[in-house]
Amino acid sequence: MNHLIAASAEPRVFMSYASEPEHDEWVLRLATRLESNGVNVVLDQWDVGLGANLANFMEQGLSGSDRVICVCSDAYLTKANSGTRGVGYEKKIMSAPLLASANSDHVIPVLRNVAAEPPVPTFLAGVRYVDFRDDANFETSYRELVYDLYGVRVKSRPARGTSPFAAKGEVLAELALRFDGTAFETAALRGTAAFRYTDNDGIFTFGSDADRFQLHVSSAGVGSVHVYKDSSNIAAIGLAAKTPIDKIAAPETYDGSSRVRTARVGDTVILTNSDGRVAAVEVLSVSTRDSAPDGIPVMAMQFAVLSPTL
What we know:
By secondary structure, this protein is of the alpha/beta class. It contains six helices and 15 strands.
């Protein structure tokens, strides 16, 4: 299951933990920090009032959230493994529908105040976790957690090039982004990239010669960008809403009469350059200054020049 957050949406996360005085304070600080980065945290400490039905809160919170954070302490492991109290009840809910698929990444174990080995309950055995046990590494662990909640990898997959044994005439593209403050560009005809779209006037250039395209964007909030045809290199822009790059129709299907289009995560933008060539850009993720853990807005995308071999 791939948890890319929908356009203009905020990730909704349920916090599961075993209550202990000092531990509760740490969980509250983590939840507050996540809220400050745009994450909608479901937490009993601020969502449950006197007289509330706790079983209903747990059921609704778990089923209505995009992800679940299990804060694993020694007390949490004991209650989860024995199936006792609130933690045991939450475990029964999580281990039924939400983890039915072996590929599910719905639940994120977070390690804190745990000395046991393995450091996760048996129902989460083999699940990758984030280690918060050492306060000195808090920022590194927090960055990993927030990036994953927004569907962005701290270390993104590099672009896959063309085989060196490709037929004569193929372009052997190498993705080489220049973060030198003057230009972000690559000669590659296809690949994936993540660039700081508030720098370089929001322009990212890919391809070369007649197959060169200047993508010009600006922020439209978390999960979306405005795409412009202001560049002299671009003659028209179209939008394939909610369509991945490998599912788009013929380029002429999309209206190209507007100066600006707003593209969201999961949309693909169709670009026609001044030479009449066509390219497509799928928006994979967009962070803003407020949502990015390091305060640097980044747009991740997949791009491909469709001509001359459509």
